[in-house]
Amino acid sequence: MKIAFVGKGGSGKTTLSSLFVRHLVATGAPVLAIDADINQHLGAALGLGEAEAAALPAMGEQLPLIKNHLRGANPRIASAETMIKTTPPGEGSRLVRVREPNPVYDACARPVELDGGAVRLMVTGPFTDADLGVACYHSKTGAVELLLNHLVDGRDEYVVVDMTAGSDSFASGMFTRFDITFLVAEPTRKGVSVYRQYKEYARDFGIVLQVVGNKVQGQEDLDFLRAEVGDDLLVTVGHSDWVRAMEKGRPPRFELLEDVNRRALRKLRVAADATYEMRDWERYTRQMVHFHLKNAEAWGNERTGADLAAQVDPGYVLGESVAAPA
Domains of the chain, with CATH numbers? Predict the structure, then answer.
């Protein structure tokens, strides 16, 4: 399952996504975790030291390698240089699987040891001095979107993406790349404002959206969230001594996480797994093409000097059974 964690800055989405990753790994599930936030904190939340987290390879810096690998033998793509963040796969493209070894993982992913196993972690990379004042953050997350367009995951395989804060992901088509989106919301007016934006923007795209109430301290907070988000409220999370210790760099064994929070994580997994039967690969591919054509017309054709609409393979549908060249 492809799972996104979104929310306003400071809502706790990175903490919740890291806890969910730990929960999945502890059950033996294969997990690919991706930090697509401008503030790169997922590595630290998964237990990496400051120097280790800073040393993670940035996907944005490996974009030529990623493009060359994914292009494969697709005859509709003249060169890797004409690929943009929305380029869809077609006959001859190389696809990426959660469990496989491949050059993209070799260059961009690193294993992070957790209780009960390891997670494969990838990061977009932070802004550099050269980016400041001249680059949009979507130039960084474009590598993630391109990867997700070519990624095929099956039952009991998980891709967990810690998204950029707020509703910023709607500046691209990446918000449609997930089976389920968990929106982390605090019980405040600002906390639910991102929910309203997400709900409105996602309305026409079949997005499965569930709210995780965070920093909930009592019945008044719970009542507020229920009144604001209704049936989209899936579960709430309160104070955690385990999380506080983790944030100080001294996480206890994961099995010592409070029972109430362990139950909340199990509920998230049940909700994610339930979306497997709802998968519609034709709609998924159609939305991919929709955003590619929009980006091609808006800026891609001019930037690459090519007609990027020609990259669309009209008979191609991405899916678990699709074969791809080695």
Answer: 2-311 (3.40.50.300)
Measured from the Cβ of residue 190, the count of other Cβ atoms closer than 10 Å reads 12
**SS3 call for 120:** strand
Burial of residue 280 (CB within 10 Å: 0-12, 13-18, 19+) is: exposed
Cβ-contact 272, 1 below 8 angstroms: yes
Give 58's DSSP letter: B
Q: How many CB atoms are closer than 10 A to CB 47?
A: 17
User: 0.70 exceeded by the pTM?
Assistant: yes
> Is residue 311 within 8 Å of 76, Cβ to Cβ?
yes
Task: Say how far apart CA 209 and CA 233 lie, in whole Å.
Answer: 9
**53 CB-near residues (< 8 Å, 6+ apart):** 40, 43, 44
Question: What tokens were used for 316?
Answer: 């191609």
Phi-psi region of 156 (alpha: psi -120 to 50; beta: other; left: phi over 0): left
Question: Residue 152 in contact with residue 96, Cβ under 8 Å?
Answer: yes
* H-helix or E-strand spanning residue 22: helix 13-26
Tokens representing 177 are 């790349």
Assign 202 a pLDDT band (cuts: 50, 70, 90): confident
pLDDT digits (tens, 9 = 90+) for 207-218: 999 999 999 999
Query: For residues 7-35, b (16+ Cβ closer than 10 Å) or e, as one string?
Result: bbeebbbbbbbbbbbbbbbbeebbbbbbb
d(CA 309, CA 301): 9
Contact (CB, 8 A) for 180 and 208 = yes
CA–CA distance, 311 with 288 (Å, rounded to integer): 12
Grouping H, G, I as helix, E, B as strand and the rest as coil, residue 191 is helix
